[in-house]
């Protein structure tokens, strides 16, 4: 190789060697400490960041349930004593209790800021989400949120849930889980060898769940619970009860109370006692309690007899005190049994106001049990209402098929007791409110619902479950009888202060083995243009007329009294 080329090659390699030497000097000597520190920060941890659950709102936008995030300060087991001592000082200065061991619970935002500022090694923060709601406000309806069970995980894992996520357990929280549930995020934390956090970033941002507006009216719900609880307090023999208020125009639930109830905030701690309580506070009596409707069923008998042409609004039936059409049974009217008197000749309107048994024995016999059952079903009795809550019972409409299915025998005269709401008729308070709303709402039977609107979705559209063909003349006769109950009948005193006229029907249903009857009441208001339908049942509450004050308080709250 020519000397010139050797000289050039030697010069090139000399330059390359010098450059490489300088680079090594920079990496190891000049910036070595910085790169070493950076390498210590490269320890990464991935944390799950819970997403906020959507809020439950009432129909007016008032918050019924929402998430609250609290933070815990977690101290590594190998954290040095000076770190723990400094934490104790910070907690003392910020008035936060800490024993010096374990995590610091419910840390204040100021404490978190000071710990972050000082960058104490081995100290990290853990978020905890608590669901805050009304606690004792509508616990059966609003429901609870909790860690999913192994059985629930089998369902939710296919929907992309993490195993440790919280889900709606029951009530509206469970019914609208898909809308309320948010998507958790993932946060990457960089720490150095001592555990000091040196950086953080979101690999996946958490996405909050959507708010869900319910048909419930918070103020009306509070009034309903207060009125029902007060009645139970005044009647210690009563073992529980339920109240349901529906929007006549679309089937929305305005209020739903079941007593006794419980506090969702202490549910886990109280569960053993609640589940063993003979009063069954965990049962939602509004949709799961099955009760004989008593004389409130006479509205069904009246509708069937009028529409089928067995009666007209002008037809009169003589109250003879004892009904003797059959050799047996020969039941009596309540007035004859209690006072030895009769109601005399009565139209259907008068018979509803006076709750004359003889009138409805005869009307029920003329209609027959099959047609009576058809009208009961058409008006929503013995049928699930379609409400989103889990566990709704369908109930039973009395008739030969059911009686024989439970080993009993149906007699021709059994139609008499069925016509006044006895026999095997068993319905939920929700169904009784549904029946009333259908009857006074021009026969329109709407699917009962809690959903008003979920954020990002169109408002709920009412779903028709059919229409009962009821002539205006016949409905007017029935409503007029219910008006008589509140104006001159057994509820006149309780309803006197309402700003508008209302209609109602009471009932008392005997329960085998119990000293007191179940008290039952259905009502609607305003009389001229019904907006709200109400049903109340109290176990061993005595006479249905005793519920008049409860009904008047709830209707008054709805009407803005």
Give structural notes:
- With 561 residues, the chain is an alpha+beta fold.
- It has 22 helices and 19 strands.
- The strands form 6 sheets. It has a 5-stranded mixed β-sheet, with no helix packed on it. The chain has a 5-stranded antiparallel β-sheet with strand order 11-10-19-18-17. A 3-stranded antiparallel β-sheet has the order 1-7-8, with no helix packed on it.
- The longest helix is centred in the N-terminal third of the chain and has 28 residues, at 3-30.
- It starts with a helix and ends with a helix.
- The mean pLDDT is 88.
Distance between termini?
A: 113 Å
Helix count, per DSSP? 22
Quick one: overall form? elongated
Mean pLDDT: 88
Summarize the main sheet.
5 strands, mixed
Decide which structural class fits the backbone. Answer: alpha+beta
Helical coverage, percent range? 25-40%
Strand ordering within the main sheet: 4-3-2-9-15
Radius of gyration: 35 Å
Strand content: 15-25%
| Low-pLDDT segments, ≥5 res | none
Got a strand count?
19
């Amino acid at each position: 190789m020519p000397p010139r080329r050797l000289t050039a090659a030697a010069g090139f390699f000399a330059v390359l060697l010098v450059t490489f030497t300088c680079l090594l000097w920079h990496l190891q000597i000049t910036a070595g400490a910085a790169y070493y520190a950076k390498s210590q920060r490269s320890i990464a941890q991935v944390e799950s960041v819970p997403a906020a659950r959507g809020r439950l709102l009432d129909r007016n936008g008032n918050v019924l349930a929402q998430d609250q995030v609290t933070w815990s300060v977690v101290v590594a087991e190998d954290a040095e004593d000076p770190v723990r001592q400094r934490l104790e000082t910070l907690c003392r200065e910020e008035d936060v209790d800490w024993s010096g061991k374990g995590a610091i619970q419910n840390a204040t935002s100021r404490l978190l800021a000071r710990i972050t500022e000082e960058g104490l090694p081995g100290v990290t923060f853990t978020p905890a989400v608590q669901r805050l709601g009304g606690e004792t406000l509508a616990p059966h309806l609003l429901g609870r949120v909790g860690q999913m069970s192994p059985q629930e995980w089998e369902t939710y894992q296919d929907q992309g849930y993490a195993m440790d996520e919280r889900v709606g357990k029951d009530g509206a929280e469970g019914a609208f889980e898909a809308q309320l549930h948010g998507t958790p995020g993932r946060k990457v934390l960089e720490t150095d060898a001592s555990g000091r956090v040196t950086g953080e970033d979101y690999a996946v941002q958490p996405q909050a769940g959507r708010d869900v507006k319910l048909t419930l009216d918070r103020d009306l719900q509070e009034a309903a619970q207060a009125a029902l609880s007060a009645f139970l307090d005044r009647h210690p023999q009563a073992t529980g009860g339920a109240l349901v208020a529906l929007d006549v125009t679309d089937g929305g639930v305005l209020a739903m109370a079941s007593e006794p109830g419980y506090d969702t905030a202490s549910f886990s701690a109280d569960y053993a006692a609640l589940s063993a309580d003979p009063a069954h506070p965990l049962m939602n009596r509004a949709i799961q309690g099955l009760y004989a409707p008593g004389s409130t069923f006479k509205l069904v008998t009246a509708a069937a007899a009028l529409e089928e042409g067995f009666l007209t609004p002008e037809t009169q039936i003589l109250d003879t005190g004892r009904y003797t059409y059959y050799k047996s049974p020969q039941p009596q009217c309540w007035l004859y049994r209690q006072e030895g008197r009769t109601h005399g000749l009565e139209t259907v309107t008068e018979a509803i106001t006076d709750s004359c048994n003889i009138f409805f024995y005869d009307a029920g016999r003329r209609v027959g049990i099959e047609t009576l059952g058809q009208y009961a079903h058409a008006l929503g009795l013995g049928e699930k209402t379609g409400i989103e809550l889990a566990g709704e019972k369908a109930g039973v409409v009395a008739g030969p098929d059911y009686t024989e299915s439970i080993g009993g025998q149906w007699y021709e005269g059994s139609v008499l007791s069925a016509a006044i709401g006895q026999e095997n008729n068993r319905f939920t308070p929700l169904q009784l409110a549904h029946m009333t709303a259908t009857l006074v709402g021009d026969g329109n039977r709407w699917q009962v619902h809690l959903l008003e609107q979920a954020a990002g979705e169109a408002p709920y559209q009412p779903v028709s479950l059919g229409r009962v063909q009821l002539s205006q003349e016949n409905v007017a006769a029935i409503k007029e009888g219910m008006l008589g109950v509140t104006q001159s009948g057994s509820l006149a005193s309780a309803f006197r202060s309402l700003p508008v006229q209302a209609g109602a029907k009471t009932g008392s249903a005997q329960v085998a083995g119990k000293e007191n009857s179940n008290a039952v009441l259905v009502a609607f208001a305003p009389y001229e243009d019904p907006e709200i339908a109400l049903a109340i049942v109290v176990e061993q509450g005595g006479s249905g007329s005793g519920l008049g004050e409860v009904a008047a308080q709830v209707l008054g709250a709805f009407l803005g009294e």
